[in-house]
Amino acid sequence: MGKHRILVIDDEKDFVKITKLNLEETGEYEVMGLLSAKELVSQVHSFKPDVILLDLLMPVIGGIEACQMLNSDPIGKGVPIIVLSALDKKADKVRAYKEGVVDYLVKPIDKKDLIIKIEKVLQLKK
Amino acid sequence: MQELAGDGKYFIDFLFLRVYTDFSKGGKMDDRERIQNELLEEINSLKRSIDGLEKIGSQYMKVDEKLGESESRLSRVLEAIQEGITFSDEKGNFYIYNPSMEQLTGYTMEEANAASDFITFLYPDPQDRDNALKGVEELLATKKSREIEAVICTKAGELKNVLIYSSIVPYEQINLFLSVYHDITERKKTEQILKIKEQRYRLVAKNITDVVWTMDLNLHFQFFSPSVERTLGYTYEEALSLRLDQLLMPDSYALALRTIVEEMSIEEKRESLDPMRSRVLELEEIRKDGSTHWVEVNASFLRDADGRATGILGVSRDITERKKTENELRQAYEKLQRTQAQLIQAEKMEAIGTMASGVAHEVKNPLAIILQCINFLESKYSGPRKNIQEVINMAKENVSRADRIVRALIDFSRLTELEIKKDNINSILENSLNLIGLEARLENIEIVKELNPKLPAVLADKMKMEQVLINIILNAIQAMPAGGRLFLRSYKATEANCKNYGECVIIEIEDTGGGIPESNLDKIFDPFFTTKGAKGSGLGLAVSRSIIEMHEGFIDVKSQVNRGTKITIGLKTAKGE
User: Fold this and answer.
1) How many domains does chain B have?
2) Which range of residues forms the domain containing residue B310?
3) What does DSSP assign to residue B144?
4) In terms of domains, do B457 and B392 share one?
5) For tag attachment on chain B, is the N or C end more exposed, with fewer CB atoms within 10 Å?
């Protein structure tokens, strides 16, 4: 069985990079990083991720808008999204869940917690 | 009398004529001699009688002279006397009408006699006229002297008040009236002025609320103005028998005594003495019915001719209304200050909140990266290399710490709205205690609960109040690392400890820990102030105070180093409780 593909979208370049390193270092995941949601749909089409890790606060296209873009795409609609955000207000979480995200983690996130969540989502997907 | 003497001579001539007639009727010679002798004898006898009469006459003349003198003296007296004197008959004819009467009425005796009815002239008021006429009738009937007061109109048209004493003097078959007119116009005017003054005094005495009093230097009351009855409810006699400590509330009594002692010592020194100086005190007096009222007393010394203090003179003015207004004003001012402080606090919080919110997100992202980096390094260097794991753990712990601060900041920024409900503060306190009871036991801390079970409900956001109480109780527990006692009290506030917040319930959390240095006491509610180092965010008490103030309550701290700390919270009771 091949590696699970994880797409990370965050405007923080270092965050994308270290998340990619941490996940790939496990040998379980193939990670693609994006610094904006601008080409999200096309990248989803080409990369075919199993899980999307999405930031909410991003310039130009925010996380919620990105969710809506994916929801309106036949392929994107089926990809589970885990939000990784510094925002921890209930209202932000509710908004995200309304757009169909499967989980919501508040930064900073320990690697172990992140992997547990990803595995849980992958299991649900199965 | 001369006429009377003249009459005597005529009588002798008459006798002589009679003898001569008898003789001429033709008697005998012897008879004639006898008759002549008899006649001569008779004439001599008569002469002697005449001499006697002449003597009497001269005596009469002397009496007459004396009478004249008396008459003249009487005239002089009548002239000199200031009262108007009249002597008249029933028909109104005046026999005596002295100059003072002329002066009083402006009419002469001739004018008075010429008037057909002088009373009509004299009394312009029909009532007075009737009284005068009735007076005459009464006098005649009773013969008793009487006194009437009337207004007369003088010839010049001036009205004068007179007091008239009348008496009746019977003379032969007629009655004469002696009247004395006393001009009382000036006296009446003075009486009128006095009457007005008295009316004013009565008006003042009736309506004045100030009480004027004096006391001797042994502090025995000597005098009270009549207003004492109205203001204190005591009669004048009762008030005089009052001791100062019976009249004043204990604090006021102490203040009054202190002031008197101060002033007496100034008197004794007699240096730079201002004899006119006075002291103004606000004292609380006890009325007869037991109620109290506030007075402003302006007191000074009473002095003898040498300027020595002999007593105390005071004026007590009721200032209950003023006190009430002052109190209301002070309460309003305190409320304003509290509101202002809350506004400032709210503004500060809003600013901090806005900043915290912004900072939080900015800080959280690098923290997220650092944590991920540490995770990465951890996976790479988890081998036996010395200190690597320790350093990694240290880095992780500090990321957690930074994250706690950021979360506390975000919590702090979210203190906006309360979910206020009627609740029992004891149950909130018990709930809070349940959450941390285990920890308290572990720390060897004895919890002493003194909770009043009959407390009125308070208006509170249960969750937020639990947050406050847990925060404070945890602080107390942490202040007693070697164990101790934690007192939890709840009771209904008295007016004194409710700080004009209205009806409220007090919660006290007191520990026997190390206490807070005085220099830190006014900072403990400031955001980011902490004495716990890395363990505290410095926002716990700041958040607690904000929550209490949002409840329109108050939170106070009292602390003594090495004795412990007491936090007092006041919460408003629900209406109708």
Assistant:
1) 5
2) 216-318
3) -
4) no
5) C
